[in-house]
Amino acid sequence: MKLGPFSFAIMALAFIAGATAVAAKEITSEVPVLSGGCYQISTAEELYGFAEIVNGRDSTAANTSACGELTKDIVVNKNVLNKWDLLNSDSAETFAVWKPMVDFAGKFDGNGHTISGLYSPDSAGLFESITSPENSVVVVRDLGILDSYFSSTNYLGVLVNSVYGPGKTQITNFYTFSTIKSTKSKPYIAGVVGYVSGASLTLTNCYSVANLVDNGNNYYSRLLGYTGSSNESLNVINSYAIKLSSSKNIDYGTLVDTAALFNGALTFLLRENAEGSIWGQDVGRDPYPIFTGTLKNSIADRYNVTFHTFDSDTARYLDNYVAGLITMLPKGTSKENLVFGGWYRDAEFSGENDTAISNTTTGDLEYWAKMYDRYKVTYHPNGGKMEAPGPYIGCGNPNKELSRCTHTDWRCFLLSGRYWEQSA
Predict the structure, then answer these.
(1) Phi, psi (5° rounding) for residue 255?
(2) How many CA atoms are closer than 13 Å to the CA of 156, on its beta-carbon side?
(3) Which sequence spans correspond to the domains of the chain?
(4) How does residue 186 score in pLDDT terms, banded at 50, 70 and 90?
(5) Rounded to an integer, what is the distance from CA 293 to the centroid of its chain?
(6) Which of 206, 225, 357, 382 has the smallest C-beta neighbourhood within 10 Å, fewest atoms?
(7) Is 302-372 in CATH node 3.40.50.1950?
(8) pLDDT tens per residue across span 217-230
């Protein structure tokens, strides 16, 4: 059944210099079939129809608590983004415009499907806002948003701009490859949620490769934007943002290298969670984690790591790593009168020391800590100028100065104010 002539579309361009106007794509909304209490969405027309149900239209009141389920992958527009993940501006005037759902308080289940080609030049998100009533839970799950573009000056998120309470919102198994652009300097933009206020939000098994653009500059990766004073109500579980060249540490979730997308390591991590069985990837064919349920042809696995230091060492070190990820080794260990000199793969300290486990390494690993003796140094400036030298030196360490010392107590004298020399 059709709702009528209403459609979410850009008006045709006016005639310019005698040229023929280019008409925007028109999508005429249709009401999806209601089955088992949920609207079954299989086309772009039905997606727009579901949005009208949630937002209300004409004399029809908004049904913000509606339930929607995807039954197929949906393509609204094609090639919204170019190869640089920026808006394909040459075709923008032909794209159908998406009007996000407002104050959504129901359930949206992607059923392992994707929505591609959302285009909104003055707003963002599949949802403008999610507002969970008291003692209620809003659920969005098993969904991907691809090849989509959003732009605004407000808080921006690919899935939802703003999440409000006082109830709970649960977002599970979501991913995106999309672009968000803000004309505001230092905006709160993110790959999943732009703004959280007064809500209990749980993000589980999500990842974002969203291109976040701040006033013309690429922004760093992150899952959540502004979180206000609701930190105690935020729970981000097993969720990841892809580390770009400009990436910094993120407040919520974990940054992973781009290689983890391709080699199956990210898929492995997503599958480790109890909710993660939907994730899969055929490495070499699938360029990133998708909803196939099976991981194939990947080196990704979890292996043991053992660190050998000294008998009285009570420090706790990582005890495992995931093949396919770059894993940084501990910065070192310490003991009185000893200086840490690096982690080595064997007890003889042969070859170069390691600072990280590469993303091509597999199998269980052992590391030995090389320790140098630490000796006391006494300085006698004899009236010369001394710039607060340290009291100790690690003898025998080729990376340290004065490495030839052999005595427990070194006495050094300043000669000509330029250098130190060991006394006899």
Answers:
(1) -85, 135
(2) 30
(3) 2-256, 302-372, 374-422
(4) low
(5) 21
(6) 382
(7) no
(8) 555 578 998 887 65
